[in-house]
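Onboarding guide, step 5: your first structure request.
Type a short instruction followed by the sequence, for example:

Predict the 3D structure of this protein.
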Amino acid sequence: MGRVVVVGSINTDLVVRVPRFPQPGETLTANGFAVYGGGKGANQAIAAARCGAETIFIGAVGDDAFSHERIRDLEEEGIDITRVLRRHGVPGGVAVIHVADNGENTISVFPGANGTLSPTDIRDLWISNLLPDADIWCAQLEIPAAAVLEAFRLARGQGSTTVLNATPPAGMIDELWPFIDVLIVNRAEAAQLSGLADDAPVKLAAALRSRGPRVVVVTLGQEGALFCFEHQQFLVEAPRVAVVDTTAAGDAFIGVLVALRAEGWSWANLAPWAVWAGAIAVQRAGAQPSLPTRAEIADAVARQPLHNNLVDHAT
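The system replies with structure tokens like these:
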């Protein structure tokens, strides 16, 4: 078992199912409505815990009913929540998600308490000896980048590997680049962060690696995921599955990736597991309900192995 620290967001997802996305000014009748636990940080933490990692969460919630429910969700997954800060008089984060019949989604996020997490909060945890040693520290940008920077700076001082899921990319700050060991983004985020018009994943990944990360992973949806290193890159093609809801597919991928990497798995061995985790998630509705267990992923990998295909640098 590896130890993973997730520094990130905790949201309540308000999910509306629609036949298609509405046009500006248009009102559609929805097919359904549900409330789920969400937030990229919480999703990735739960995915890691279900894959067997000892998981510790650092974040902030409000004092509303939704926040109390989200804390309970994490506790039920066996995640250490002793470093989750409670903000009085502040609502927790909320995401309004439209899911179309084809499984694609649009998401609007209100940060709430997530937006209050600060470098001072991280330093206070460190001063109080509450920042644990861990194999991997994982973060996203649904919390302030300055807090992520402080967390990664301290994690590096402990010898931990840092993994950043740079989404939303608008939250990225230049000071973070030197502290990122592994960067994980989708194709659109890679293009935005690199500033390249060319959407060839290998070129995007190479441009991002030049900013400092040792490893860049570009998730490509139904095309799989590209893993890019200094002297090699390989593509893992995704299995063909029926898509119900793409929400949290990337979080499933990342949670499994960090859990297995914390155990010492090689990139080549863990990559098919991470891709299968995302493929399982898209076949289910909701964010956290869709996240697979380790046994489910192992069964899928055994039934349909995925292969790592080497990709030429010039591609």
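Each response can be followed by summary notes, for example: The chain has one domain: 3-7+39-89+114-310.
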